[in-house]
């Protein structure tokens, strides 16, 4: 007699209660091994830490076999978590190998066990130096004569209210228009991440995002506007290795830097493709990668042409490119036409092939 897998629940929360507990329990095992590897680096047991990397990676892979998640939305969330943990682990080993291991500057040095936990969970290295964060510069407007009012206006809570308002306005527009839909997704991501940041941030945490409406070029969008939570892995796992390899080939410095930037975008493309694989079709995953790589290439070309000069023509071209790429990507992604039209109860159903 042939056995059939259990039928998926129609309700997202019901399936969540079935899939989540065993999956979380199994994922804790490779997460603990990753922590032990980082703890070994903190204690300067370098080779012990390196040896622990392999079983950690194997256990992350095996976790999906031991405790399979049938709910596609939940599987995507777990993929995001596992991918971030793996990048964090590899990043710290690269930093140790290049003698750039972060030094704690957040006050009194904590004990090694706590320091390893902070390193593992602190994505932006707020408590360490050096860190890869590049905070966006506060504009001189509005309230040019009052820095206090300007700082209040650009504070994360006020900007979150502004961006939520813009998002609601976008949801009132026809969602079958792809640029409107794509821009709505951009604002939705901004609002969700910022809401989490407002709850989890440290007192000394810089803003996670800059205001979207201030982005006036592709370069400023990706360096000053969009979130910097994954700037560390981009630098350590893509930009630096690409720079090192191509510099050894004695290629021109400008070409090396351009390739390193594109490599960083490619890493983010692969990361998002892996994380979102459960909820995207094959074509959707392909377009996600192309979206990031194309953004990298266009950013390089833009900087080569404009340099650091700001101009309204540059802003118009940048937003035309960004919304065109985002619209092209969204066209093949299984995204509802508006938040109110989303099937929130059926997020566990199988993805469209």
TrEMBL record:
GO terms for cellular component: membrane. Keywords: Membrane, Transferase, Transmembrane, Transmembrane helix. It comes from the Eukaryota. The chain crosses the membrane at residues 20-42, 183-200, 255-276, 288-307. InterPro entries: Wax_synthase, Wax_synthase_dom. Residues 206-293 form the Wax synthase domain. GO terms for biological process: lipid metabolic process. Its main location: membrane. It is a multi-pass membrane protein. GO terms for molecular function: O-acyltransferase activity. It is found in: Membrane. Pathway: Secondary metabolite biosynthesis. Belongs to the wax synthase family. This is Wax synthase domain-containing protein. It comes from Massarina eburnea CBS 473.64. The lineage of its organism: Eukaryota, Fungi, Dikarya, Ascomycota, Pezizomycotina.
